[in-house]
Amino acid sequence: MRRALFIETNFSGVDAVLRCRAARIEPLLVTAGLAGLADKLPAGSLGRLRAAATIVQVRDPLDEEALAPVAARLRPDAILSFSQAHTLVAARLARRLGLRGADPAAVAALNDKFAMRGALERLGLESVRRLLVRRPEELDGVPQSVGFPFVVKPTRGFASVGVAVCRSRRELARLRHTLARELLPWIAEEYFEGPLVSVETLTLGRGRHQVWGLSDRALTHGVVEVGSSFPVRPPGWRAAVRHTLACLDGIGFDLGAAHTELILTASGPRIVEINARAGGTGHTQMIDAASGRSVCLDVVRAHLGLPVEPWTPPARTASRYSFWSARKGVIRALPRAATARRLEGFSDMWLFKREGSSHEGLRTNFDLLGQILCVGPDLKRAAALARVAARTLQGEVRIQ
Length: 400
What we know:
The chain is an alpha+beta fold. Among the domains are: 3-102, Rossmann fold (3-Layer(aba) Sandwich); 122-190, ATP-grasp fold, A domain (Dna Ligase, domain 1, 2-Layer Sandwich), CATH 3.30.1490; 317-400, Aldehyde Oxidoreductase, domain 3. It has 13 helices and 20 strands. A 5-stranded antiparallel beta sheet has the order 11-12-15-19-17, with helices on both faces. Helix 1 runs parallel beside helix 2 and helix 4 packs antiparallel against helix 5. The protein is globular, with a radius of gyration of 21 Å.
C-alpha cells in the first residue's frame, strides 16, 4: 500500500485523507496537534481524521530540519499539504527525500505575494503598482505610489485575514491604526474593478495542466467570501485560463493543484493571488459535487506518480453558500442537519462553529458559522437553491 504524508491539514485536506483511505492509500498526518485544528475544521472532522489516518504529532510542523528525520522514518511515497502555510515545507521535504513534488522555488514565490508580483513583472506577464509596507507609517506613501483605492494584505496571508480596501485618507488613518496591532510585512497594491473568479487547475508536470474550470465569488463586508459556484463561464473566462497557465509556467510551478484568483477587468484578467494548493472552505467538495469525482484524490495520485483520469467538463453546477452573523456574543443555536436535508438541491452542510462558543462577529472567512452545498442543472438554478437554503438555515442561528 502506498503512503501519502500530509503536513498539517485544512477542510480540503481532511477530504483528501478520507479519500486516500477509501482508495487504499495509507494517509499519514503530521500535525502540531488535532486540538489546534478544532476551530478550523467542520464539526466531526477530528474523529474522522483519527479513524482514517496515522497521526504523528510534532512540535513545529514548519521546522524542516526537525521534520526531515520524522518523514524519513515514516518512508512515505509522497509528501504534500493542502494547508497554505505548509505547502513550502512539504515541497522542500519531498525534494529532500527524492520524492515527486512542486519546485520549492516556485512555491516560495507564490506564497509571498510581494515576491509573486515581482516575478510576474520580470517575466513580462503582469505589472501592478505596489508597495511593501514594513511599518504602519509607511502606509502614508501608498497614495502617491499606488493611488486610491488600493488593497492591503499580509504578504503571506490567506482566508481573507487582514485584507482591507482603502479608498480615502480618512480610511488610511484607520488602517494605519489597525496595522499597528497586526503582523507585518504587508503589500499595498492597486485595486481592480470587476468580478472575482478563480481558475482551478491540477499541474501534472512542467507545462502539463488539467484545467478543472472557473469558480465565481459572492463577497460580504468587502473581502469575506461567503459563496461560490462551479463551473462558471463569465465573459473573458478563456483569457483568464490562458493568463493563469502562462503565470504558472513562467514561475515554474510543475506539480500539484493551484487555486488562482483573478479580477476580470474591462481590459483583461488581472491576478489577485496564486495559491499552490486547491481551494479550501468547501471549494474542492463543490467541484466534486459538480464533477462526480474527487479532485483531492487526483492531487494525491499526481504526487504519487499514479495516472490521473482526463478531465470531463461537469454536466451540472454546484453552489455553496455560507450562513454567518456580524453580531458578537455566545452561539446559542446553530442549524440542524435535518433542516438542511429537507432543502431542495441539498448535497451537504458543514458547521464551522459549536454551540456554546463565543463569536467575534464577521471579519474573515474563519468567522463563518457554516455552509450549505447545493446542486442544480445550471448556474442560475444551483446558485438560487444555495442562497435560499442558506437563508433558511440562517433563521435557526441564535447568538446572544
